[in-house]
Amino acid sequence: MIASLLINEGSKLLKEHSENPHQESCDFLSHILKISRDQLRLCSNKINLNESQIKLFFSYLSRRSLHEPLAYILNQEFFWEQKFYVDKRVLIPRPESEFLIEHLFKNISKPQKVLDLCCGSGVLGITSSMYFKNKLTILSDISYKALEVSQINSKKFKTHTSLIQTNLLNAFKNNSFDLILCNPPYVTKEHKKIMTKDVLNYEPHLALFSENKGLTHIFKIIQSATIILKESGKIYIEIGIHQLKDIQKFILNKRFKLINIINDFQNIPRILLLEKTNE
Q1: Residues linked to residue 165 through DSSP beta bridges, in sequence order
Q2: Domain of 122, in residue numbers
Q3: What is the DSSP letter of 108?
Q4: 3-state secondary structure (DSSP) of residue 128
Q5: Residue 270 in contact with residue 263, Cβ under 8 Å?
Q6: Which of 85, 94, 266, 274 has the most crowded CB, counting CB atoms within 10 A?
Q7: C-alpha angle with apex 79: 139 to 112, nearest 5 degrees?
Q8: What is the CA angle 167-170-173, rounded to 5?
């Protein structure tokens, strides 16, 4: 069957289940054929797929029609122009987290010891390790299954990283790190009712939700980071909507000063840069 006909068929089948049915159909075929989307576009009227390829394509469509995320079906997601392995054991990396990396590379000189806390697939720690080529980057998560995915990506990109399973910062000694990168659970339980099925039914809730208006994990991390970071050490931490004011109040009597607030695509405060002080 010719690729262009399959794309049209896939677009029809995904129309009610996807915001971009044509694009996703192309992504499925590109993945199956191991060619780029541009190559597929140029040659879709000439490429014939065999029976096994057609069967695989329709199995992808079937899974997507049940709202399974594209990234889990293809076991890949791009982050900072690199293709990372992902599956249901970890959250899918979001474009908003790239704001953290962009600011990090522009504003932080080479750190020696870096911690990617609540690392999931490891995109933050691995991306920073490839850029800084620092002595040590540790990827840590409470989920052993998430660390298995981090290990896959660490091996893929051949980075100097170590993996540690721990509940937040419990396993680390005082004054251990120059820099912490963290995308913690910060979604409120009340937010469930407006979440899409793609997220709610497939992504790990352990990495999504936090109590106390979504602030429990963030507060625990900030509290412990004052001990774990070296003097003048810094932490980048991703936050949710409407959480900034509560966090600003929380750090008033902590050994941190707020250096920068980084907004996302919708101009919502999304990343905070905090620096440990001597006070």
Answers
A1: 141
A2: 80-276
A3: -
A4: helix
A5: yes
A6: 274
A7: 40
A8: 145
User: pTM higher than 0.90 for the full model?
Assistant: yes
Q: Do the domain assignments include residue 239?
A: yes
Query: Domain check: are 99 and 227 in the same one?
Result: yes
- Predicted local confidence at residue 274, as pLDDT: 97
CA separation for the pair 131, 78 (Å, rounded):
16
The answer to whether residue 233 scores a pLDDT higher than 90 is yes
Tens-place pLDDT, residues 110-168: 899 999 999 999 999 999 999 999 889 999 999 999 999 999 999 999 998 999 999 99
Residue 71, both tokens:
């990234």
Whether residue 75 is contained in a domain is answered as no
Angle between helices 3-14 and 21-33 (to 10 degrees): 140
Quote the tokens at residue 209.
């939700």
